[in-house]
Structures are given as structure tokens and as C-alpha cells.
Structures
1.
Amino acid sequence: MSFETTLYDAFTGMNPAEKSAVINFLCTYTAHASKPGVREAVEYAIKNKPSFGGFVLTAHTGRQLIAAVVVNRTGMEGYNPNNLFVYVTFHEDYCQDEPTMLQVLKKAIDLTDGDIALHVEPSNPILKLYKKMGFEAPYLELRFNKQQPAAVA
């Protein structure tokens, strides 16, 4: 499959139409994505707000967006990965196209020098691909639910 990629960051920026297209794509093809959350991650990546920055990598065939990867830099190098894959999303027509998925992911990994963390739900089918590429799960993430009262013994 032949496709082109576009890299957006603090230097290249993103015009309003490009930003809107990427945000809408991510909200359409990412489970549980909220428009405010996606917008926040994209604006962080391209430094439209004070941040460590990052980048947005898109893949497209002609004018059709087929993938988007949003990477935020954490500023925590030395004790946590310096990059977080916030969104890795493929158009539904490409979710089973492993060669295309691998090419997009490898390009994103190359842009981070391999210092990356990501979150993925255990039931997400892409988990197998991440493991095949060398991603590991050395830790279990726990999140505090501030809506639920803490149980103290």
C-alpha cells in the first residue's frame, strides 16, 4: 500500500483546516476519544500551548487520512520515557493492514529515537502488533478514582 506522511510540530505548525481534520479523524476512529481531550493533545504536540511539545504524524492516500499518531514529549527523560504516544489511530479500512500499520508506527518510533511509552487497553487488537514490534509492559498502571471514596482500613 502506498501512502504519504506529513509531520506537524512546533516548527511546521498546523493550519486550522488540518487541525480540524486530524481532530475529527481521531474522534471518529478512536474509542472513548473526546474532542476537548484530542484537541488538548494535538495543541500540546504542536506547542500551541505551553508544553514540551511533540509532533503529529499523519498518513494519507491522496486526500484521505488513513492514520494519525499524536506524540507528546513528557520532559521526564532519565526516569520515564521522553515521549508518550497519546493517540495511534488508523482508519477502519486499514486496521487489519499490518504492513501499513508497521510502516506508520516505525516512522513515529524513528522520530522519537525509540524512547516511548503508550497506553493501550488489554482488549485492543493492536496490542499484538505493539508486542511484536518490541513494546513491553514492565509495569501495571493504577489510577485513583477521585469519584469513589478511598477505603481506609
2.
Amino acid sequence: MAQSKPKHQDYWYLVLATSSIVIGPVLLMFRADGASYWEKWIYITLFIPLGFLVIFLNYTREITLALSNENEEVQKLLLLKIKTKYLRYLLFYIPVVLGYAGLCMWILWKGGL
């Protein structure tokens, strides 16, 4: 019998992945002394399009795998599950990155880093 994983385990992986790509730009924000306010903000938010690209590439990979299934009913079910899963990912990712970009903008503005 296969072990079932916790319901929110996928979300924790998404949180860890997002935070791991944020650490570098945040450190750059504190280290880039000669950069202007907007340059620093662009540096630290440049990972956002990269995150969308990774989500899109994984989505297309899973869709391609689902379409390779020969059973049409299974194919429809897999496509629905994949679309629902990635919609949830986007609904999680978009507010997080908007909040992150706003927080970084506020830190740069208030702190004068």
C-alpha cells in the first residue's frame, strides 16, 4: 500500500522553492551600494518572471505527459487535475510575489538601503 502524503505538502515545497530563489536577490539588495533605488528593486524582483517560467515549463511538461495517455477518459481526468493544480500554484504564487515586491519596495524606501 502506497503512503499518502499530507494534503498541504505540495504547498510547502512551493514555499521552499520560492524562498530559496529569493535569498540571493535579498542579499544583493543589501550589498549593491552604488545602485539606485529602482535598480535595487529590479534586482530583487527579477526572480518573479523566472518563477512564472518554471511554473509554465512544469505545466507544459505535465500536460504533454497527460496527453500521451491512450485512454481518453483518463486523459481528460489528468488534464483537469493538472489545470486545477497549477491554478492553485498561481493563486498562491501571485499574491506572494506581489507582497514580496511591495515589501522590498517599502524596505528600500524606508530604510534607504
